[in-house]
Amino acid sequence: MLRLAQAVAFLWSLSTASSFGVPKHSPVAFTTTLPQQHQQLPLGVRGGDSVHKSTTLSASVTSSDVVAEENLQVLSERGRRSVVNLVENDTDGAQAHVYGGWPAAGSEDEGKKQLAEQLADLDESYPGGLAAYLSKAKLLLKESADAVNPFEEYEALVPEGESLSFDGEGTMPFAEAEQKGIEAMAGATFVLVAGGLGERLGYSGIKLSLETNLCTNTNYLELYVRYIQAMEYLARQKTGRDDIRIPLVIMTSGDTDPLTRQLLKDNNNYGRDDDLITIVTQDKVAALKDGSAGLALEGDDRWSIQTKPHGHGDVHHLLFREGLVDKWEKEGKSHVVFLQDTNALVINSVIPTLGVSVAKGFHMNSICIPRLAGEAAGAITRLEHKSDPNKSLVINVEYNQLDPLLRSQGDKKGDVPDPNTGYSPFPGNANNLVLELGAYAKTLRGEDQGVVLEFVNPKYKDDTRTEFKKPTRLECMMQDIPKLFQKEMGQEANIGFTMFDRWFTFSPAKNALEAGVEAVDNGNSAPGTMSSAESDKYVQNQRKLKFASADVKVNEDPATELVKVGGIPVTPGPRIMLCPAFAITQEEILAKVGGAEKCTISERSSVVLEGHNLNIKNLEVDGALVIRCGDDTHVTVDGLKVENKGWELAELDPSKEYEETVSIRGYTMSKHETAEYVLTEPGNYVIGADGEAKKV
Q1: How far is Cα 343 from Cα 345, in angstroms, rounded to an integer?
Q2: How far apart are the C-alpha atoms of 103 and 83, rounded to whole Å?
Q3: With helix as H, strand as E and coil as C, how does 185-226 read?
Q4: Cβ(219)–Cβ(209) under 8 Å?
Q5: Mapping DSSP to helix (H, G, I), strand (E, B) and coil, where does residue 394 land?
Q6: pLDDT tens-digit profile of 466-498?
Q7: What is this structure's pTM?
């Protein structure tokens, strides 16, 4: 069955005028309009094509379910207005359980106030108001119940894009793309979508606070900030400009906002100025209990409406609403990079993807990976309209929509592999984006103001498709922004992709250890746990150093080289961390390691390298080595030999208690002996055969 999460993703020019009429209720007359700001905001099905404007209504009401005037007087002005709007717009009685049957004034008044204020909050937080939200929901739920095929008028084609390989061949040389990206770094801004807690991973905190690895204990937020710092440093070095500053916006949710702010405060923004980190917070939306879009109440509490996350598609409207896009344009920025919260590998792809965007003139560029045919991952697809070319566009299509679509066209084989590559010809969506700022700003200034197309994905109780197993809501995804590009720019919108090898760019942490072990037992080689994500980071750095001619064994084959620790196959080593301050480009790795007389790292070793001016000339490691250097500290490693007990992974002792960040991995790291060098004083140093760091 088609995933209804996208069921109306590509319906065109749907009317969004409210279908609500005048209710037939009790003899109380209401005259009201929605707040002015709501009248100015767009409303539409999955983004909308028209502006919702409330009309002044006057109703003679005959039903005893209507809120009595005495109860209305208990409420604040904004609460009263929201209750009245809900009643006026409820032509089919779908919301009668919310406003009907209130006890007389003086009884449960605090509950009435609470409900009215929540209705007002929901009204003010959603573009177009709660009436707009429910109007969209009714239409989308009907489309869902009717199982409408959104692709009947489309043919799926492979879009235009580039394939890059760090250590192999692609359609465009990696070095060329990287160089163009380096030239464009100064114009970059970053947006980190981070609205989720780590519950699915078995972690009670925010996902950004999870440690990416146990060698450095760097959490995800710190990793992304350090990467931006390194990009800024490199951009200044390349241009000679000291005024280059790269901002970061973090989108939080009500669940993650306080903890994210505290994490930044506790760590002094990881060295960033306050004005370089901006936090925007998304609101939740009302949950819906049935196919009539009835508002779901919170358990047995009749005075509280259940709310749910709206999705990371909110980020576009928030950036517009907060004036950040205007600000970036005035500052001369050129591109916006969107990152997800727990995929540490993706930072490697940013600069070359930026280079492809410049070279190809892409207004939107999706970072992609090779996709196995039938894999449960979205695919970037060109949807060619059969009769109207102006309706064609490039957009993500979910896997369980792609196969039926392909079975309806051409050879009708469906989602099958390309015989030449073994992969699907459609690139897999890693859901990290690079947008050209000028086109993005133009799109956000359109009538939708960045409100991307929404969808519903209800879980039905039975085949009648009217009642849900649990409440649903409207959702939105940031990768659906191409529909707004197409609407505002037509066929001028240039949307493509850049594809990288999986080892280089994709290993998200998203599953709990138990779920990962079960997946592995069922033959899955990508369990998506913290342990597999950590292992893949080490493998990535093994391959980078191997490419630079270092004597390093790459252990990545699940069948012959990985070893199970805590039930998850991980690399036995070497465990290598190349920190952002050491190298974020292929060019830097070749410059710092590629010219070495010798760089040998044994399989059991653990190595951490950090420093913009750290260079390896002659190094042998059999154990654990950490070298950290300040920004103005120049260090050459020439003749150093490290031999010690090193570090090792150890499975957890069931009789002991461990911190969550350790327990979710299924192992801990025992750090027996370490050769550690921390050099921060400006100057030139050499670490030689005697193991001493000497200033020269």
Answers
A1: 6
A2: 15
A3: HHHEEEEEECCCECHHHCCCCEHHHCECCCCCCCEHHHHHHH
A4: yes
A5: strand
A6: 889 999 999 999 999 999 999 999 999 999 999
A7: 0.87
